[in-house]
Amino acid sequence: MDASINKHQKNVSAVIHLSTFSKYFIPFGNFIIPLLIWTSNKDKWEFIDENGKQVINFQISILLYSIILGIIMIPIVLFTAWEFVGFTNILEHNSHNIDFNFDHISGFGINAGLIGIIALLGIGLLIMDIFCTIIATIRANDGLLYKYPLTIKFIK
Asked: Is 58 exposed, middle or buried (0-12, 13-18, 19+ CB in 10 A)?
């Protein structure tokens, strides 16, 4: 622990990390609130500046990873739904019945597996976000800088 880091710096840094949980109450609160606290204190103390950069970079990284998972998931879900409902029959006006016999769906098992893997990755991102934020808050309160895993350095 660095002796030059006072209790105020530790508290403000811990609040910056903890404020990312505001996303559960305020849309984009995980960006807005930490950004406001960080920008109002970054010029005064280096410890707060470093923690603020870590928080913002991690939150942007998590958002980017979530968007990528969503983009990958869209065609898989659409093609699975397309096969499941049988839109070719609906478009040709042959039938409006949904066939729950999965034998004719060739890629349904593969698509369901991919959907499951992507869902697990999304849940993993959520769990990593929660646990890393808690660990970073505790470390900041102890006067230590926490480096979030899988973080892209957008702000250097």
From this structure: buried
CA dihedral 124, 148, 58, 70 (to 10 degrees): -20
Query: Both tokens of residue 72?
Result: 């990958």
State how far the Cα of 115 lies from the Cα of 119, in Å rounded to an integer: 6
Among candidates 136, 117, 9, 50, which has minimal Cα distance to 149? 136
C-alpha atoms less than 13 angstroms from C-alpha of 97 in its C-beta half-sphere: 5
Q: How far apart are CA 146 and CA 134, in angstroms?
A: 11
Q: What is d(CA 40, CA 85) in angstroms, rounded to the nearest whole number?
A: 54
Buried b (16+ CB within 10 A) or exposed e, 32-54: ebbbebbeebbeebebbbbbbbb
Q: pTM of the entire structure?
A: 0.79
> Please, which pLDDT band fits residue 3 given cuts at 50, 70 and 90?
low
